[in-house]
């Protein structure tokens, strides 16, 4: 799907059906035919657009080594997208988002529907002396960084809920869930690091962002990215510790169960041993007593109770 948008002087972003007077063209889940059309119409390298079709595509920049802006510049970022993991819990995967800047227009592309491109379809924050394509690219980058911050806070809450459940019981489902959280955070950290490198490369070039306002806005985006990266790194360490704690608790619970079962086995062995001795065809004490059986049962019970008390005193029961 191809969408065309024009930006008014007051910052309003309006979708237009005209492919002639627009400032921004956006491709969402594009077909190869649509990619061919945009690449041909606006002299854009085809691989700038087909990159979004590959889920494994890593963030990068291209076209920043020009002396003057003659060829399109590519800023390829990654953004988080919620999916359902094989264990049935929510997990985040990283998908590529392509931003192609020219002198007068910006072309964006992604292979999945995104929320951050729709946030400013109604209004765009206007900054004086900043070109509209640059403003759109900066605001998209800001929205992506904000999305990372929002999602990492969601993962933080999930982790805290798991920690509270830890005091009650530990189930396999909880271990699966924390594994999914850890996997999402690993993806977050890798994507944020690569996005940050791309934005820093864009800030260091003189081809774009030649005004103080534009550079200040991009600097704010960098700060937001660094904040998301810092929180993600901290949360990843905490989740790793929580996962280790889960494993330790499971192991400790198993040890407690084995300890109790061993103690029960020791106690139940007493009547077996005594009964076996008195079942032999040899002369034994009290064998000729009239109430020997009941005295023997009473002695076994007392011996079992004493053994149980002794094991409990040693914290083995």
UniProtKB/TrEMBL annotation:
It is found in: Membrane. The chain crosses the membrane at residues 260-280, 292-311. Its main location: membrane. It is a multi-pass membrane protein. Keywords: Coiled coil, Membrane, Transmembrane, Transmembrane helix. InterPro entries: CorA-like, CorA_cytoplasmic_dom, CorA_TM1_TM2, MgTranspt_CorA/ZnTranspt_ZntB. The keyword Transmembrane helix applies. Pfam families: CorA. GO terms for cellular component: membrane. The keyword RNA-binding does not apply. Gene3D superfamilies: CorA soluble domain-like, Magnesium transport protein CorA, transmembrane region. Residues 145-172 form a coiled coil. Signal peptide: none annotated. It comes from the Bacteria. One of its GO terms (molecular function) is metal ion transmembrane transporter activity. Belongs to the CorA metal ion transporter (MIT) (TC 1.A.35) family. This is Magnesium transporter CorA. It comes from Vagococcus entomophilus.
């Amino acid at each position: 799907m191809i969408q065309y948008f024009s930006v008014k002087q007051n910052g309003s972003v309006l979708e237009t059906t005209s492919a002639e007077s627009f400032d921004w063209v956006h491709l969402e889940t594009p077909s190869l035919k649509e990619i061919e059309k945009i690449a041909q119409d606006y002299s854009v390298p085809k691989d700038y657009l087909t990159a979004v079709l590959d889920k494994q595509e890593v963030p990068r920049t291209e076209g920043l080594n020009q002396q003057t802006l003659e060829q399109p510049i590519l800023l390829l970022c990654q953004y988080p997208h919620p999916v359902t993991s094989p264990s049935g819990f929510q997990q985040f995967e990283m998908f590529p988002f392509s931003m192609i800047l020219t002198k007068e227009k910006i072309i964006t592309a992604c292979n999945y529907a995104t929320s951050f491109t729709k946030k400013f379809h109604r209004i765009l924050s206007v900054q004086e002396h900043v070109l509209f394509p640059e403003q759109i690219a900066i605001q998209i980058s800001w929205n992506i960084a904000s999305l990372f911050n929002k999602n990492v806070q969601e993962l933080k809450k999930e982790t805290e809920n798991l920690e509270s459940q830890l005091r009650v019981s530990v189930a396999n489902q909880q271990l699966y869930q924390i594994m999914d959280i850890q996997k999402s955070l690993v993806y977050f950290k890798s994507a944020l690091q690569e996005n940050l490198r791309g934005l820093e490369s864009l800030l260091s070039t003189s081809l774009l962002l030649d005004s103080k306002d534009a550079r200040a806005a991009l600097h704010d985006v960098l700060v937001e990215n660094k904040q998301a990266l810092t929180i993600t790194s901290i949360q990843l360490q905490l989740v790793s510790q929580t996962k280790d704690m889960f494993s330790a608790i499971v192991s400790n619970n198993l040890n407690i169960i084995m300890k109790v079962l061993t103690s029960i086995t020791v106690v139940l062995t007493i009547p077996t041993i005594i009964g076996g001795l008195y079942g032999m065809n040899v002369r034994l004490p009290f064998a000729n007593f009239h109430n020997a059986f009941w005295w023997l049962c009473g002695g076994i019970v007392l011996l079992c109770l004493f053994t149980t008390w002794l094991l409990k005193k040693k914290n083995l029961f």
